[in-house]
Structure formats: C-alpha cells, structure tokens
Design brief:
Rossmann fold; HAD-SF_hydro_IA_REG-2-like; HAD-like_sf; 8-stranded mixed sheet; HAD-like_hydrolase_domain; globular; alpha/beta; single chain; 2 domains
Length: about 300
C-alpha cells in the first residue's frame, strides 16, 4: 500500500490494513466537538459595547494571544497551584485583554457566563449522530474526551447536551497535569480505562494490542494526530476547513505556526465552518494508523463500513 491515499466513502478504495473494531475513541474538545458560535473576540467586543466600551476586534485578538501566553507562563495550568480557580484565571485574562481600559466586574462576569452557554458555543451537528450510531454497532466501545483545557469543559459539555455521552471518560489536562502532545497523557488514559474496565482487554491480549483498538480524534496535527500515534493509538485529524491542506494536496502539508493556531481558534464561526464541511465525503489515509477527515460523518462511515 502506498501512502498517503485519498479516498471517498463508501467503497472508493480500500483501507489497508482493515480498521480494527474500536474499543476506545476519544475526542479533543474545542473545535472538534464544539466551537464558538461567532469569533470569540467578536463576542467580547459585543459585550463590551453594551457597557459603552469600544475596542477593535483586531486589537482584542492580538492582546488575547499575548495575554494568554503571559498568564500561562506565570500561572500555568489555569493557576491551579497558585491559590485561585480557573475561573479567576480567566477573569484576570479578560481584564488584561481590555487594558488600558479598565472594565467593570459585571462585564467580566457577563463574558464568563456567555462562554458556558449555547450563546457562546455550539456542538457540531455530526457529533451526537456519530456517538449513537457507533455505539449501536460497537455497544461496548468507550467514548471519551482528552483535551488540554480547564474544568469549565465539564459545564460546557452539559450545556451543549454532550456530557452524558462521555460521562466517566473525560480526561482534562487541568486534572491530570499531563498535556498534549505528551504521549504520557494517552498512556494515562489507557491505564485508567483498563483499570475501570478490566474486561476491555481480550483474553491473551496485551496493552500494546489494546492500543491498536484505541482512536483519538482532534483538530491539531501535532497535539492530536502525531501525539496519539506516538502513544501507539490510531489517530484522526478532523480538519473541517482543510487548514493543514492535506485533503487537497497529499504531498504538502501547510505548517501552522503557534501564532496561526492561536488566531485560528479565536476566529471560529460555527455556521460558516459547518456549511463548508457538512457535505464533503473524501478523506485521506496518511499511513496504516492515521487519517484526515473533513467532518465526523466521514469518520462514522469509516468505522461502520469496516466494522
């Protein structure tokens, strides 16, 4: 088999080796399961305007990137070991993003409340359909979340109607204190899943064999796809806007810098992204254990076609 290989499901081309039945599927959170309804700094700016504060979105974007990095360096992991909560950490960030303008605490509270509701974020429409159909085919599969984020993720998953699908298998860097792209995070997940579900490993199988039945799905090439592969998992890059270029050009990946990644995450617009990716049906098999898909529907078809 020559890789990479571009295919369309169902039935154009054959996946080799065949996909093994999944026993564990994990998802990154932001921009994989859900994304912002409109660009995040547009939301900040709109809320500020209600208080009579006018700040250009472009300035907020640049301030956010720099402030996030500064706070993360000074108070890593959302301030977990510095005597304040993740919510306090975000409040500090919001205040500093608007500097030199001093904003009222009620504005900060309004922003913090909005980002935990359907006004601020929305689940991609293909996620729940994926979970239901794949669980129907593989009833014992464990579906979870592995994400570099803070505990607000739990509440957001609840607000978006997703939490019950992942309950008991949400692994956040804040709690575990391991961060993608460190493969040790994926090792931790495997160990915990096996401890909680000892029967998940077949008789005579090893942890190494079990990893061949593990899948991670995320939107970042290094932190999701490469990291999961290094841990011995199957890996899927869901690239709804083809930011990495692999869905068009099999030979040339568009390298995204850290700055690009920051700005891309701030600039998400759920409806526009969904309109772009919803009807795409092709995918790319990069090698025996990694794939690039334009949406989760294609991933579902991949599992169901080969299951």
């Amino acid at each position: 088999m020559t890789y990479p290989k571009k295919m369309t499901l169902p039935s154009q081309g054959k996946i080799e080796p065949p996909v093994l039945p999944p026993k564990l599927i994990t998802f990154d959170a932001y921009n994989t399961l859900y994304c912002s309804t409109t660009p995040i700094m547009e939301q900040y700016s709109a809320i500020a305007l209600k208080y009579g504060i006018k700040v250009p979105v472009e300035r907020l974007n640049e301030r956010f990137r720099k402030t996030f990095q500064t706070l993360n360096d000074k108070y890593p992991n959302y301030g977990k070991h510095f005597g304040f909560s993740a919510n306090d950490w975000w409040a500090r960030l919001i205040r500093q993003v608007f500097l030199p303008t001093e904003v009222p605490e009620s504005l900060v509270d309004d922003i913090l409340e909005r980002v935990l509701t359907k006004e601020g974020f929305i689940a991609y429409p293909d996620i729940i359909d994926f979970v239901k159909e794949v669980k129907g085919r593989f009833p014992d599969v464990i579906i979870g979340v592995v994400s570099n984020t803070d505990p607000d993720c739990y509440e957001l998953l609840r607000q978006l109607g997703l939490f019950d699908y992942f309950k008991g298998a949400v692994y956040l860097s804040y709690d575990i204190e391991l961060f993608k792209p460190d493969p040790k995070l994926f090792d931790y997940v495997v160990s915990d899943v096996v401890k909680r579900h000892p029967g998940i490993i077949g008789e005579g199988d090893s942890i190494k064999t079990f990893r061949r039945h593990c899948w991670h799905v995320g939107d970042e090439f290094k932190k999701d796809l490469l990291a999961a592969q290094k841990a011995g998992w199957n890996a899927v890059l869901v690239d709804r806007l083809n930011r990495n270029g692999l869905l068009n050009d099999l030979e040339q990946r568009s390298e995204m810098t850290e700055h690009d990644l920051y700005m891309d995450k701030l600039d998400q617009h759920a409806e526009k992204i969904w309109d772009h990716c919803r009807d795409q049906k092709h995918f790319v098999q990069l090698n025996e254990t990694s794939f690039v898909v334009p949406n989760i529907t294609v991933l579902k078809q991949l599992f169901l076609a080969e299951g």
